[in-house]
Amino acid sequence: MQFEMCALPGGGKLELYLRSPAPAMPNALRRPLVLVVPGGGYEHVSAREADPVALQFAAAGYHTAVLTYSVGEGARDHQPLRQLRAAIGLLRQNAERWGILPDRIAVCGFSAGGHLALSGAVLDCPGEAADRSRKPDAVLLDAFMPGLDALTVKQRYDEAGGGKTVFFVTGSFTDDALESEMMKKGFSFYFQKPFDPEVLAARART
Which of 4, 70, 113, 140 could form a disulfide with 79 if both were Cys (CB 3.0 to 4.6 A apart)? Predict the structure, then answer.
């Protein structure tokens, strides 16, 4: 496995875990990539939702990466969104060199990272030109985000024309009625925290 680390504007960081190409597997010389965006309430970047999740996606056969974005006072002026857009742009610019399928880049976000992933999928950054090349092709989303419930998030995403998306939902409680309603609204599956990243990677692969 190849490791790369790239600096992003405003002190952000993109860490990549790239599967090594195998000549015996010519159909896997280029792979999809999952960009993991950890949570932390925009006050910190959660370590447990970073490498442990990314490495499970790598074990499942994906290229993967982790975004470290600005938090606290550093998150002003939409800085985390700018960093996410820059990260996706960097992945596409280097897709050939890194063996990435440029039209198969997914973002996987948790909590505040889910808020950021969804924003990156449907919003343009104020002061920047609209640029589809800096948006993900799919979103795997923890829909319990700051100030929004899961069903409202899904409704807003659909209204915004988000497109090809897998929604996963994580939460710290079990509620059969809520889970049933989520499935009716188009969510793919529900995990109770703490969840097993290997199980998440396996479900996303299907």
Answer: 70
